[in-house]
Amino acid sequence: MAVVKLENVCKYFGSTPAVLDFNLESHEGEFVVLVGPSGCGKSTTLRMIAGLEDIDSGTLSFDGQPMQEVPVQDREIAMVFQSYALYPHRNVFENLAFALKLRRFPKSEIERRVRDAARTLDIEPLLGRKPRELSGGQRQRVALGRAIVREPAVFLMDEPLSNLDAKLRVSMRAEIAKLHRRIGVTTFYVTHDQVEAMTMGDRIVVMNGGVIQQIATPLTLYDEPVNSYVAGFIGNPPMNFLSGEIGEQGALIHGPGFEFRPEPSLRQQLARQNRRDVMIGFRPEHLKPQPAAAHSTMGTVRGAIELVEQMGSTTDIRFVVDGHALIAELPRDQTLVAKQPIELALLAGHLHVFDSETGKRLNAATSKNPADSVRSGAPTGAVRSGLSAASGRPG
Ligand code: ATP
Fold first, then answer.
1. Is the pTM here over 0.85, yes or no?
2. pLDDT tens digit string along 307-355?
């Protein structure tokens, strides 16, 4: 277990910035997830921690020891990649033992480590098989085993599940989380899948355009995204966005098809803003059918139903408000049909307000979680560009 610290780390490929001013200090034994869209710099960050990529500026340390000059083989790390890259002509035991043999570990120590890893991963009965005789999930376990036998201080995983089918991915996700709990090694895990990030991470680093947007625990990211980029990226179905205008000194936010009356704390926050135009966001599960007497609500949004999706546990409604596509996750309902008008109430306390220029969140942060080092990255293109009418998401 190690504390990994990156300070002001930057990386350019020629004149292309890949990672800009990356700052993060892991906790010992923490599971840190780096998440973001393709090309946002996740893998480059991981490769810099591994020593596979030089750092242009800034510093990297493990437990306070500077790492920049330490070659890959001398860093106490083990990596797991998307491709398992198992040796096809060696059996599982030999695949697990290979790196230890190269390092001239005594035979008895190799035997102990391989057996321990196989037991941990539940692959003992497979030790005599060749990779072609294994399923995708079993191969991925062997790839994890190859990393475990090295007993590293830091695990680095780059999209290790993306070759697996959807169902297997979900079960391997749980396997990796359990494995981490059992062996407690500090882990950096790269994915573009926000569900993987939310379900696996102790803390999540959301990146975009090489810039950290926010570092926080899963629920803080969900409840208090620091900008519209994070708000739109985290959550499935995604957050709804609309352009709105502040009225009555913060007591009202309105626009075509909606009026919301913010709670007192948000009202005060908005009254202090020297602006009229904002971007608002609200999550699909916070919309309720009318009349919503059982709930405390803050106003309504009206539109026309485009599509009704029966999900089994919920009825999801895709509806259009002033040309913007929105989603509501409602209790099961078989009476709703396409082309109907619909009016939905928004639960009180669930309105997110963002600066329409920069995308920065205007609601005050309420998180008291000490694990959250919430920091908003410089607004990137995707944050600035505002609403997309087709999806209702920033982008
Ligand atoms: P993905 O999910 O697609 O793997 P990523 O978030 O891991 O993406 P990186 O691979 O870190 O992104 O790439 C960040 C940026 O650096 C991208 O613009 C990419 O094109 C660029 N880049 C990465 N590696 C190189 C390289 N060896 N040479 C030049 N540019 C590179």
1. yes
2. 999 999 999 999 999 999 999 999 999 899 999 999 999 999 999 999 9
What residues contact 354, with CB distance under 8 A and at least 6 apart? 227, 228, 231, 278, 279, 280, 281, 360, 361, 362
Q: Could you tell me which residue, 165 or 379, shows the higher pLDDT?
A: 165
Cis peptide before 237 (omega within 30 of 0): yes
Max CA distance (Å), the chain: 77
pLDDT of residue 148: 87
Q: Does ligand 1 lie within 6 Å of residue 47's CB atom? A: no
> For residue 2, how many other CB atoms are within 10 A of its CB?
21
Q: Is 276 exposed, middle or buried (0-12, 13-18, 19+ CB in 10 A)?
A: exposed
Report d(CA 244, CA 31) in Å as an integer.
Answer: 38
Please name the residue ranges forming H helices in 28-165.
42-50, 92-102, 107-121, 136-148
Looking at ligand 1, which residue's alpha carbon is closest to its atom 27?
13
Distance 208 CA to ligand 1 centre (A): 12
Domains of the chain in sequence order: 4-220 (3.40.50.300), 240-362 (2.40.50.140)
State whether the beta carbon of 38 lies less than 6 angstroms from ligand 1.
yes
Q: Quick one: which of 163, 187, 165 has its CA closest to 176?
A: 187
Q: Alpha-carbon distance 339 to 308, whole Å?
A: 10
**C-alpha–C-alpha distance, residues 395 and 91, integer Å:** 47
Ligand 1 neighbourhood includes 15 CB (under 6 angstroms): no
Model confidence at 383, pLDDT cuts 50, 70, 90, reads: very low
Distance 194 CA to ligand 1 centre (A): 19
Beta bridge partners of 186: 154
Check residue 318 and give its pLDDT.
98
- pLDDT (tens digit per residue) in 237-288: 999 999 999 998 889 999 999 999 999 989 998 988 877 899 999 999 999 9
Cα dihedral across residues 139, 140, 146, 149: positive or negative:
negative
CA distances from 35 to 183, 198, 208, 211, 380 (A): 23, 10, 9, 11, 16
48 lines ligand 1 (CB under 6 A): no
CA angle 190, 193, 199 (to 5 degrees): 85
Q: Residue 33: CB partners within 8 Å, gap ≥ 6?
A: 189, 190, 191, 196, 197, 200, 201, 203, 204, 205
